[in-house]
Amino acid sequence: MKTLGLLAVGQSPRLDYGPVIRSLVGPSVHVVENGLLDGLSREEMKALAPRSSSEHPVISRLNDGSSVVMSKPLLTDIVNAKLREFAAGGVDVAVLMCTGAFQGVVCPKSLALLSGRDIIDGCVRAAVPAGSRLGVLVPLASQEAFTGKKFEDMGYEVVTANASPYGDMAELERAAAGLRGCGSVVLHCMGYTREHRALVARLSGAMVLQSNALVGHVCAELLTER
C-alpha cells in the first residue's frame, strides 16, 4: 500500500479537504496529514504574519475553526522540516497543499513531492482555452493582484474576487455574483469545499475548478491500485 502525505499550510487534520482527497484516492492508499502550524502556540503563529505588503500572504484554517494569515517566505523552513518528517515516516508521495509557490523548498530524495500550485495551474491550462475570461476566487483581497497577474501572464482575461473559505456564505455569495460572465472559475485555495463549488457555479453560471479535488484526482491516478 502506498502512503500519501498531505502537508497543510495550517493545522491538521483538515476536515475540509481531507475527506475529499481520501474519497478520491480510495482505500488502497494510506493518507497521513501534517500541518505547518501543528504544535505552535498562538504567539509563534503571530510571528509568522506578513511583515510588509510585498510579502505574499497565505491564509489557512486552524483546528478551532478560526483562520490565520501568514507570510509565505517565513514558512519555508517549516515546510522543509515537515518534508523530512514525511520521509522519515515512509511517505511515498507528499503534496504541499497550497495553490501558491514556495521558494527554497528542499525535498528529501526518498520522497516524491507534488506542488499543489503546479497541479492547479496545469489543470487550468488544460481545461480553459487561452484568451478565455477566467474567474479567480481567492481568500484575501491582498491576494488578488498577485494571483490575477499570474493568470494574466498565462494568457487569460482575468476577473478576480475574494471570499475566505473560512468565513460566512454571504461573503462567498457576493464574490460569486461578481464572477458572472466568466466561462470558468478556479477556486484558488485548498480550503474551498464542494459546497462552495456548488454555490459559485450556481451564482456565476461558470464551470468551476475546485483545487483540492483536482489534487485528489491527480493523486488517485498516481497511487491508486487498480
Describe the structure.
- With 226 residues, this protein is of the alpha/beta class.
- The chain has eight helices and ten strands.
- The chain has helices at residues 18-25, 42-46, 76-88, 116-127, 144-153, 169-177, 194-204, 211-223, and strands at 2-8, 29-35, 57-61, 67-71, 93-97, 112-115, 133-138, 157-162, 184-187, 207-210.
- The strands form three sheets. Strands 2-1-5-6 form a four-stranded parallel sheet, with helices on both faces. The protein has a four-stranded parallel sheet with strand order 8-7-9-10, with helices on both faces.
- Strand 3 (57-61) and strand 4 form a beta hairpin.
- Helix 1 packs parallel to helix 8 (211-223), helix 4 packs across helix 8 and helix 6 (169-177) packs parallel to helix 7.
- The longest helix has 13 residues, at 76-88.
- The termini are close together.
- The relative contact order is 0.17.
- The model has no long low-confidence stretch (mean pLDDT 95).
Any descriptors?
226 residues; alpha/beta; four-stranded parallel beta sheet; 23% strand
pLDDT under 50 segments (min length 5)?
none
Q: What's the count of strands?
A: 10
Straight-line N-to-C gap: 12 Å
Strand order of the largest sheet: 2-1-5-6
Biggest pleated-sheet summary: 4 strands, parallel
Radius of gyration: 17 Å
Element pattern in H and E: EHEHEEHEEHEHEHEHEH
Helicity level: 25-40%
Return the average pLDDT rounded to an integer. Answer: 95
Strand content: 15-25%
Category from helices, strands and their pairing? alpha/beta
Structural shape: globular
Number of helices: 8
TL;DR of this structure?
The protein is an alpha/beta fold and 226 residues long. The chain is 36% helix and 23% strand.
